[in-house]
Amino acid sequence: WMLVPRSAFIYHFFPMVPFMMLTVVYVIKQWIEKGKSKKVVYGYLGLVLALFILFYPAISGMIVPEGYIRFLRWLPSWYF
Hints:
- The protein is an all-alpha fold.
- The chain has helices at about 15-35, 40-60, 65-70.
């Protein structure tokens, strides 16, 4: 979808979500089985949770101050 020149909407990415989730779980499982540090896995999962909590008000349509939305626009091409 990165090479498609037209606008992509969220529903275009839904078929990919189960495969992405399986891949992330597989990589985490392989990392732990090889005896690598679990701190990296916990750090990654903590970062994912923190970003979800940070962006949830914007992507769910909650009413939030405009300054909060401007804070979340890390790239100029992001619209929400």
